[in-house]
Automatic annotation (TrEMBL):
Annotated Pfam families: NAD_binding_7, TP_methylase
NCBIfam families: cobA_cysG_Cterm, cysG_Nterm, PRK06136.1
Catalysed reaction, written as an equation: precorrin-2 + NAD(+) = sirohydrochlorin + NADH + 2 H(+)
Keyword S-adenosyl-L-methionine in annotation: yes
Protein name: Uroporphyrinogen-III C-methyltransferase
Gene3D superfamilies reported for this sequence: Cobalt-precorrin-4 Transmethylase, Domain 1, Methyltransferase, Cobalt-precorrin-4 Transmethylase, Domain 2, NAD(P)-binding Rossmann-like Domain
GO annotation terms (biological process): cobalamin biosynthetic process; methylation; siroheme biosynthetic process
Pathway(s) where this gene product acts: Porphyrin-containing compound metabolism; siroheme biosynthesis; sirohydrochlorin from precorrin-2: step 1/1
Length: 409
């Protein structure tokens, strides 16, 4: 006969707690994690504890949680469907568990699973799909399996063929910001969209690893724009997005960084909207912040800078097409981040110095950010042009001007 602590005795069920009273005794980190999951399930949560963590207190303020700022007393579980004993006092947890046992309320005791009538699984959600894993008494094992399943559902290696709500609607377009290049830095929604696509139009700066996981029937179109080199015209990209969507395909436009940060994403949105194609935008981690961060350079730092500016350097100062007020940027004291500005760096650095920026201001150039080939070169604003030549720096690269560069040295 199985013992009460034998994992084989667990009967996995899904509790429908929406609109039902749940009592959590305790106000620490464990209680916070339990409350977060219960709120996600729609439960009416009451917390009994003299003190709360700041995160729990933030849930109380808007009324999401009812708080009794006192110690537990017998009778607190009256009317509860479910209870959690999560204090740091074993005697209190035992009293809560005993009351729950008498009232036939299932109770999860955080400090002693052997006396709990409920063992909380490692839970993950993707849309309306809920994954719960019991690890045979090993919480880390359960978490590892849960994360692996969710990752598989996200990248498409585990197919949810019966999903009622596909990750991309038929005959629509999703503009996905792929982040700075590392597939691990793509948002969860971005991965879901790519995994559910019939057609993917991808830039060369998009995370190429995502494309490798796609099944062979997915059409992958190279929409790269190489610096000063071969490029698919924007009009052609717009036409392809509309054409494939009109054929009833699930279309994803996979771009590097964020679609709306020098990515022409809004032009693509306008083209689809004008053609009556539904469009979703999935923001991405822009390389303007991510690449310096990966090199150990914060774009802001308390007491050092109160502003940072992101500039496109694809045309130099003085060019008829330039929309940048270089004189204003030269007067700034904060951080300047330049994208697409390797070839124009000599002209840009000269303009910044001309308009007031100290020639000895630290500069960092980070090339091939978020890839195994990433490297950083440090110099000054005055020495930038020569450094790029000496180090053979080529695009893609992000360069940063400002005192914050010294922090990452």
């Amino acid at each position: 006969m199985s013992s009460p602590t034998d994992p084989a005795t667990v009967y996995p069920v899904g509790l429908r707690l929406a609109g039902r009273r749940v009592v959590v005794v305790g106000g620490g980190q464990v209680a916070h994690r339990r409350v977060a999951g219960l709120l996600e399930a729609g439960a009416l949560v009451t917390v009994v504890s003299p003190e709360l963590t700041p995160a729990l207190e933030a849930l109380v303020a808007p009324g999401s949680v009812t708080w009794h700022p006192r110690r537990y007393v017998a009778g607190d579980l009256a009317g509860a469907w479910y209870a959690v004993a999560a204090t740091d006092a074993p005697a209190v947890n035992a009293a809560v568990a005993a009351e729950a046992e008498r009232d036939r309320v299932f109770c999860a005791r955080a400090d002693d699973r052997s006396t709990s009538t409920v063992w909380t699984p490692a839970v993950g959600r993707q849309g309306d799909l809920v994954v719960g894993v019991h690890g045979g008494g090993d919480p880390q094992r359960a978490v590892g399996v849960r994360d692996a399943v969710l990752a598989g559902l996200t990248d498409g290696s585990i197919a949810d063929r019966a999903a009622r709500a596909p990750s991309v609607a038929v005959g629509s377009v999703v503009l996905v910001g792929g982040g700075p290049g590392d597939p691990g830095l793509v948002t969860v929604r971005g991965r879901q969209a790519v995994a559910g696509a019939d057609v993917v139009l991808a830039d060369h700066l998009a995370p190429q690893g995502l494309l490798a996981s796609l099944p062979p029937e997915v059409e992958v179109i190279d929409a790269s724009k190489l610096p000063r080199g071969r490029a698919m015209a924007q009009e052609q990209i717009n036409t392809l997005l509309v054409d494939r969507a009109r054929r009833g395909k699930r279309v994803v436009r996979l771009k590097g960084g964020d679609p709306f940060v020098f990515g022409r994403g809004y032009e693509e949105l306008e083209a689809c909207t004008a053609a009556g194609i539904p469009v979703e935008v999935v923001p991405g981690v822009t390389s303007a912040i991510a690449v310096p961060g990966l090199a150990g350079i914060p774009v802001t730092h308390r007491g050092m800078t109160h502003e940072f500016v992101v500039v496109s350097g694809h045309v130099p100062p003085g060019h008829p097409s330039s929309l940048v007020d270089w004189a204003a940027l030269g007067r700034l004291r904060g951080t300047v981040v330049v994208l697409m500005g390797v070839d124009t760096a000599p002209a840009i650095s000269a303009a910044l110095i001309e308009h007031g920026r100290d020639p000895q201001t630290p500069v960092a150039v980070v090339s091939d950010g978020a890839t195994p080939a990433q490297r950083s070169v440090r110099t000054t604003l005055a020495g930038l042009a020569q450094t790029l030549v000496d180090e053979g720096v080529r695009p893609p690269a992000v360069w940063v001007v400002g005192d914050v560069v010294a922090l990452g040295a």
